[in-house]
Amino acid sequence: MAANDLEEEFDYEADLEDLPDHPPTAQVIGDPSVIVNDLHVTYHVVGSRTRASAPTNDNLLKKILRKGRSLTGGHTEVKAIRGVSFTAHHGESIGLIGTNGSGKSTLLKAIAGLLAPSQGEIYVSGIPSLLGVSAVLMKELTGERNVMIGGLALGLSRKEVDERFDEIVDFSGLGDAVYLPMKTYSAGMGARLRFAISTAATPDVLMIDEALATGDAGFRERSRQRIDEIRGEAGTVFVVAHSTASIRAMCTRVIWLDQGQIVMDGDPETVTNEYRKHVKELTVRREEIRAARRASSA
Ligand SMILES: Nc1ncnc2c1ncn2[C@@H]1O[C@H](COP(=O)(O)OP(=O)(O)OP(=O)(O)O)[C@@H](O)[C@H]1O
């Protein structure tokens, strides 16, 4: 990854002014809602990690003749989560931070029950919801129809969805675009609608993966308030965001992941400060490597 990409990835200043400078209100934390015990998650990927040598016509022919065998080579295991343990409580909002590929999304998917642990256990009290409704929404249908589908998927009745429809649309900020097919929405519009539907019912455990990055300042402020309300109603919220400013504004606790392991787990200020230092060091180190490469090829 280039140093520029790395800096974009850690958009830690960009939205500071968009967000209130007070941290989330302190909440008395309740009983455990999620217990993760020595979790390991491994992806099995068909294909070799090593670069294939350019095939000559001769060995390509041989490969084609070896019918039924994979042309892609070996089988690779990606150990995305390696021995993660923590306990989350009712009333907490936990930010997950870490560089690209550190395992944040994988951890959320495992808590949501979408990925099986290869080792370890996850206990969840209540129903986890990974932006609960994303899987059931249909791009060909209008936002309006999707509000109904998503609401029903969350366990609301048809009448309850009808009653909450205006509120959901107001929250999403979509206006009349809600009557257009979702496939016509920008990434941000789709993310805002998913967030609005997912939080229409108060979930026990809500997981938000990057949805907030796509919203504007007003939407982010509404989201922050909604997350506070969910915590107030004894829910637990997990938030993945690359912006440490958003994380500090929304979370009562932060877990920093690196290469599938926990580096730090603690209060937002301490963890994000340490993380920012780490990112700055990484950026400097990568810039030095690039400069050395440029010098050696000159
Ligand atoms: N479906 C998959 N198949 C194989 N490997 C995967 C798959 N999804 C993720 N990985 C790998 O697992 C590791 C963790 O990925 P994950 O998406 O959980 O990280 P992340 O911290 O959410 O990254 P990002 O910030 O880029 O979204 C990475 O090495 C990634 O390449």
TrEMBL record:
Keywords: ATP-binding, Nucleotide-binding, Transport. InterPro entries: AAA+_ATPase, ABC_transporter-like_ATP-bd, ABC_transpr_TagH-like, Bact_Polysacc_Export_ATP-bd, P-loop_NTPase. Pfam families: ABC_tran. GO terms for molecular function: ATP binding. PANTHER family: TEICHOIC ACIDS EXPORT ATP-BINDING PROTEIN TAGH (PTHR46743:SF2). This is ABC transporter ATP-binding protein. Belongs to the ABC transporter superfamily. Residues 66-284 form the ABC transporter domain. It comes from Populibacterium corticicola.
